[in-house]
UniProtKB/TrEMBL annotation:
Disulfide bonds: 288-300
Family of the protein in this entry: Belongs to the sulfotransferase 1 family.
UniProt protein name: Sulfotransferase
Organism: Cricetulus griseus (Chinese hamster)
GO molecular function: [heparan sulfate]-glucosamine 3-sulfotransferase activity
Region listing for Disordered, in residue ranges: 1-23
EC number: 2.8.2.-
Pfam families linked: Sulfotransfer_1
GO biological process: blastocyst hatching; heparan sulfate proteoglycan biosynthetic process
Gene: Hs3st6
Positions bound to 3'-phosphoadenylyl sulfate: 100-104, 181, 189, 305-309
Length: 342
């Protein structure tokens, strides 16, 4: 696919051959009731979820020290909570975005480092659960020794209007990591994830353009997330650019050790995670972790990662590339990095 930035789906159409350039895009016809049902099901999966219920707000737990690998238990929230010695601290670093950019892979790679302790689940505190309070949030964190870094990742923070202010109120020194990816590829990946949960969803084209043939529909979250420059504008009202590290999702696949090395530098950590920890899984199409000493097999991300993309018409891809181009260029200027998406 020319100029697609390595789209996994290739050229073609989810529902037959796509139109060429200059050809009007036709919206698929369907009974109104069926369309309403499918869109309602889509919203169930695509819109932000609710905060998990908790029985009570955990109080801060002071403790002196912790071995690097403490045991875990499930807290009242259903999220894993570390038990044992050490202290629960607010995260010094957050992976705040973006969805389908490679955030899960980055977190799992960083968890190899002995000085990184990270919450495995996404707590969604700064977008969905803020009313639970900071004590509840800190109670979810793994215990750490002095010198260790506490982290969590929730990729929806980057597109949440209130998240920068709330994080700044917690700590203005928080380090922020944003994994970004070609916004067209990211949107198709986002759609593929929802399609796997909602078979019969309208085509990518029908959702990406108003009425299936008009302007790009920025109200659709799969499109809106890729407006990175607009989201970053909101964050820069609260944090200086020096507090951010922007990780290339494409380079995280092509050179995981290099990108993880940049993250370790940003966090002030020794480069412990190196190329010796990775191998490329050709079946999945992304890097996996080599098996640790005493482990039975290598570690790869779950079946939901690396799923094939639906085939999207080339004309649709080109229209979205043209739409995103000015936003991408502004993002390059803001970050001082050219991600090579255009």
């Amino acid at each position: 696919m020319a100029g697609s930035g390595g789209l996994g789906g290739g050229a073609g159409d989810l529902q037959g051959a796509g139109p060429g350039q200059g050809t009007a895009l036709r919206a698929p016809r369907a009974p109104l009731a069926l369309v309403a049902l499918l869109l309602g099901t889509y919203c169930l999966f695509a819109l932000p979820g609710r905060c998990p219920p908790v029985a009570r707000t955990p109080a801060p737990v002071p403790a002196p020290a912790e071995p690097p690998y403490a045991s875990r238990r499930l807290g009242a929230s259903g999220l894993p909570v570390a038990s044992g010695p050490g202290r629960r601290r607010f995260p010094q670093a957050l992976i705040v975005g973006v969805k389908k950019g490679g955030t899960r892979a980055l977190l799992e790679f960083l968890r190899l480092h002995p000085d990184v302790r990270a919450l495995g689940s996404e707590p969604h505190f700064f977008d969905r659960c803020y009313d639970r309070g900071l004590a509840w949030y800190r109670g979810l964190m793994p215990r750490t020794l002095d010198g260790q870094i506490t982290m969590e990742k929730t990729p929806s923070y980057f597109v949440t209007q209130e998240a920068p202010r709330r994080i700044h109120n917690m700590s203005p020194d928080t380090k922020l990591i944003v994994v970004v990816r070609n916004p067209v590829t990211r949107a198709i990946s986002d759609y593929a994830q929802t399609l796997s949960k909602t078979p019969g969803l309208p085509s990518f084209r029908a959702l990406a353009f108003r009425h299936g043939l008009g302007p790009v529909d920025t109200a659709w979250s799969a499109v809106r997330i890729g407006l990175y420059a607009q989201h970053l504008d909101n964050w820069l009202r609260y944090f200086p650019l020096s507090h951010f590290l922007f990780v290339s999702g494409e380079r995280l696949v092509a050179d995981p050790a290099g990108e993880v090395g940049r993250v370790q530098d940003f966090l002030g950590l020794k480069r412990v995670v190196t190329d010796k920890h990775f191998y490329f899984n050709a079946t999945k199409g992304f890097p996996c972790l080599k098996k640790a000493q005493g482990s039975g097999r290598p570690r790869c991300l779950g079946k939901s990662k690396g799923r094939p993309h639906p085939r999207v018409p080339e004309a649709v891809v080109q229209r979205l590339q043209a739409f995103y181009r000015p936003f991408n260029r502004k993002f390059y200027q803001m970050t001082g990095q050219d991600f090579g998406w255009d």
